[in-house]
């Protein structure tokens, strides 16, 4: 039963600094690692974690080293792609020893999970906050889709193509996402696209492509869809996303949002029913 956990938008800063002066992103990632490690015994084997961009806030070597030090406690291997807050070459240097990190060019990779394949794409355009998939990225995608041979694929990007209704975030989506969707629509098998960037859990069906955006362990983007709303962060509970392949009753990749933290319970439903009423 192949499975992976999506972690996104960790925004790690140097020690002592808060994102936007408010959000302790390192503490949030530490809590996420602790919470996910505790859940691993309950959810069964998980192959790896996939970090969908914005590992750091400014893309510095110091931030990547702090990210690595925190996530080293996670009892899973991990792969990553960059987001608009990352620096491609600093990220490449930090993860140069990892087998998923290419020596040159976009940070992109493909992993075969058996029943499905995950294709990680680099949408970082270092002069902008919005996303852009390069010609190298499209060529890599074309080859990976050919090799997948019609079995289900998951396309992992930092920038989404679906809209959230939060105007400022939607303005910084994947600008050439229409060209990506054309390729995914033409693929012979099922397609899902998983992204980050918006710090919220959202799902949309765009043609044949199921699109999901994952929550972040740290702050969320405030859900304010009013015209001329100020783009803001809000300290909602953090989360990660579990994707598990289930063979029955019909083969499918099932997603579960994993809230970060400790919560009261569990209490068996049967035991609760046995308690006398008052």
TrEMBL record:
Keyword Acyltransferase: no
Domain Calcineurin-like phosphoesterase, first and last residues per copy: 4-200
Source domain of life: Bacteria
UniProt entry tagged with the keyword Iron: yes
Keywords of this entry: Hydrolase, Iron, Metal-binding
Family: Belongs to the cyclic nucleotide phosphodiesterase class-III family.
Protein name stated in the entry: Phosphodiesterase
């Amino acid at each position: 039963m192949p499975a992976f956990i999506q972690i996104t938008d960790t925004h790690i800063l140097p020690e002592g600094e808060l994102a936007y002066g408010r959000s302790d992103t390192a503490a949030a990632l530490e809590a996420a690692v602790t919470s996910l490690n505790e859940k691993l015994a309950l959810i069964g084997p998980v192959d790896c974690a996939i970090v969908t961009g914005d590992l750091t806030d400014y893309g510095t070597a110091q931030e990547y080293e702090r990210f690595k030090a925190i996530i080293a406690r996670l009892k899973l291997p991990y792969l990553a792609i960059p987001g608009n807050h990352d620096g491609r070459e600093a990220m490449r240097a930090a993860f140069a020893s990892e087998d998923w990190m290419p020596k040159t060019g976009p940070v992109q990779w493909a992993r075969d999970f058996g029943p499905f394949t995950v294709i990680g794409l680099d949408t970082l355009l270092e002069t902008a906050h919005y996303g852009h998939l390069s010609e190298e990225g499209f060529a890599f995608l074309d080859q990976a889709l050919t090799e997948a041979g019609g079995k289900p694929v998951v396309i992992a990007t930092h920038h989404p193509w679906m809209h959230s209704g939060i105007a400022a975030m939607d303005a910084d989506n994947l600008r050439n996402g229409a060209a990506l969707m054309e390729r995914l629509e033409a693929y012979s098998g099922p397609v899902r696209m998983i992204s980050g960037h918006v710090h919220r859990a959202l799902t949309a069906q765009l043609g044949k492509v199921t699109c999901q955006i994952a929550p972040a362990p740290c702050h969320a983007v405030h859900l304010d869809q009013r015209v001329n709303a100020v783009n803001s962060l809000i300290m909602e509970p953090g989360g990660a996303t579990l994707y598990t392949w289930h063979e029955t009753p019909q083969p499918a990749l099932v997603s579960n949002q994993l809230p970060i933290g400790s919560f009261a319970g569990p209490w068996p439903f049967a035991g609760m029913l046995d308690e006398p009423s008052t």
